[in-house]
Amino acid sequence: MRSLSASDLLAIWERGAGRSPVVQALIILGIAFPEASPGRLADLTVAQRDAALFQLRRWTFGPQFVGLAACPACAERLELAFDDGDLPLPDPAHTDLPSFETGDRADSSLQVDSYQVTFRLPASTDLLAIDRDTQPGAARGDLLQACILSAQRGRKAVPAGDLPAVVQEAVITRMDQLAPLANLTLAATCPACGHAWDVVFDIVSYFWSEITVWAMRIMHEVHALASAYGWREADILAMSAWRRQRYLELMGA
After folding, report:
1. DSSP letter for each residue of 111-133
2. Which DSSP letter does residue 99 get?
3. What percent of the chain has pLDDT over 90?
């Protein structure tokens, strides 16, 4: 996995604008893993995908995350901040594609009452299929059924859709335990009313919003520098952010 340059980020933003979050994530990974086919990247589990995105985000914008959340009880807005050093991220030295083909790609089994269930963790291919085919409100159930490889009660096979709710919830809970990055929540407490709740954090949406803000700013910088000096976009993007800023300051002098 390689880091993202300024030209990479602008290309990512251009290709992914208006696309679904699943596609946007795959576009980012496609630039970071140029040696990998789109199908290979789509087959990564969501947990593997998100681990790579967290590392890319650290290399691009740093380890600190800051966001806003609205209290569901009183609508008070509060700031949430955390460092990705607190998350169970893989060693950056091993954030390459071969390491993503073992470990949490393995099938898992779970015994719940008299039911034996074998399942796998969801991948981007599953999310793409849901985006394309699933009716609103049915996505969670369809995703679970896609990930259940087999289910038995005693010696009798049971279709995934016929499993009792308690068994389905047990499988979902186990998936969350096996892939915490794919289901990341942050504990929040409202300073105004004291209400406590969990905020779901989505690295894809957060990273994409940062890329969008960055891209809008860099386009203004490129326009200003190209207009003033006649430089090509590629040459301006190849400059460090520090050098671009110095030239912009000179223009305003």
Report:
1. EETTEEEEE---BHHHHHHHHHH
2. G
3. 75
CA 97 to chain centre: 16
How far apart (Å, rounded) are the C-alpha atoms in residues 104 and 45?
8
Q: Residue 186: what pLDDT?
A: 87
Number of helices and strands in the chain (H, E): 10, 8
Can you tell me whether residue 227 is helix, strand or coil? Answer: helix
Between 95 and 3, the more confident residue is 3
Tokens of 110: 């779970």
Tens of pLDDT, residues 33-43: 999 999 999 99
Q: What are phi and psi of 77, to 5 degrees?
A: -95, 135
pLDDT in tens, 132-168: 766 656 788 889 999 999 999 999 999 999 999 999 9
Q: Quote the pTM value.
A: 0.88
Amino acid present at 120: R
Dist CA 208 CA 75 (whole Å) = 25
Return the pLDDT at 183.
82
